[in-house]
Specification:
Helix content: 25-40%
Number of helices: 9
Shape: globular
Order of helices and strands: EHEEEHEHEHEEEEHEHEHEEEHEH
Number of strands: 16
Radius of gyration: 19 Å
Distance between the termini: 21 Å
Strand content: 15-25%
Strand order of the largest sheet: 3-4-2-1-5-6-7
Structural class: alpha/beta
Length: 294
């Protein structure tokens, strides 16, 4: 199994005919993803050929859903049009919208996430790498060739650290890796993924990657303490970050002990999570937990 994305998922790409959309649609198709169409009102009716794989372009998400039965969209549109794109997808009945776009105004994110929630649509992102269920499907920009299917679930704020942990633990493999994005407001949280991995019978261990700033990791720690029975290994980016300075794509501001890597580490460890201080140490913690349970 996997969470949120499987080989059965049918994917539309909003903004497929743009530069980034074309590049990553080609990569998704090469990974075996079932991309069933693109969306661009100005190019409706055309077909784009990806290495002899023709993909139709629809004028709207609704048109694409009606023609293909799509249940996932990946959004590669400029920030100014992201709110409209997500709203359109939710109104078309899409169950999962993956927003790769960065630089989306926070007030737009708040608006389209509220609308999607009312429509029963899950949003991952914005400003995220997407998700991958190795050997099944990729929705976004995560490389498909750096790991293999396995029984680790990964949820991360950081795209780069997602890739690094996937590669370092490639010999073990992953059920699903979800990059939730580092913006102040995102559609899917650590807790959402923890709950899904807890219920997934093919996920044996969960890796949680967080960053300095905010309290998302502390809230995740409380959820783990009360609801997660599977082993969790964590990593918090920013142990060496200076206080009182804005850093990284999360725009994290650390003031006093609030939001520091150390405070997050303490919260996670109090919930029984092993926390590494580097990605390499985190990978060793994963191996130790798996060896202990073998």
């Amino acid at each position: 199994m996997a969470i949120h994305l499987t080989k059965e998922s049918k994917i539309l790409v909003q903004g497929m005919t743009g530069g980034e959309g074309m590049k990553h649609t080609r990569r998704m198709l090469a990974a075996g993803t079932n991309v069933v169409g693109g969306v661009n009102p100005r190019k409706a009716g055309r077909t784009v050929d990806f290495n002899d794989r023709p993909v139709p372009v629809f004028g709207s998400v609704t048109e694409g859903v009606d023609a293909t039965g799509a249940d996932v969209t990946v959004v590669f549109v400029p920030p100014a049009f992201t709110k409209a794109a997500v709203t359109e997808a939710a109104d078309a009945g899409i169950g999962l919208v993956v927003v790769i776009t960065e630089g989306v105004p926070v007030h737009d994110s708040v608006a389209f996430l509220a609308h999607a929630r009312r429509r029963g649509t899950r949003v991952i992102g914005p400003n995220c790498p997407g998700l991958i269920s190795p050997g099944q499907s990729v929705a976004g920009i995560i490389p498909a060739d750096i790991t293999k299917p396995g029984r680790i679930g990964l949820v991360s704020k950081s795209g780069t650290l997602t890739y690094q942990l996937m590669y370092v633990l490639r010999d073990i493999g992953f059920s699903t890796c979800v990059g939730i994005g580092g913006d102040p407001v995102v559609g899917t949280t650590h807790i959402d993924c923890l709950a899904a991995f807890q219920d997934d019978p093919d996920t044996d261990l969960i890796v949680l990657i967080g960053e300095i700033g905010g309290d998302a990791e502390e809230r995740a720690a409380a959820y783990i303490r009360d609801h997660v029975t599977k082993p969790v290994v964590g990593y918090i980016a920013g142990f060496t970050a200076p206080e009182g300075r804005t850093m990284g794509h999360a725009g994290a501001i650390v003031s006093g002990s609030s939001g520091t890597a150390r405070a997050k580490q303490q919260a996670l460890e109090a919930a029984g999570v092993r926390v590494g201080r580097t990605p390499t140490e985190t990978a060793r913690q994963v191996l130790a937990v798996l060896d202990a349970g073998a």
